[in-house]
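#structure-requests
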Amino acid sequence: MTRLGQMLVDDGIEKGKAQENEDMCSLIRKLLDSNRIDDLKKATEDKTYCLKLKEEFNI
């Protein structure tokens, strides 16, 4: 891969990580606002459940 290509890939990865971080913060905020602490705890242990919650909140 060319140096430019690698730079583009690296940039895409960083943007993806930043978006995932924003999405998780949004999910946490919505769960806390809804007083759904047990769901928040479960989401940290179960990736499938976390994805289900993201779908529920349209994140």
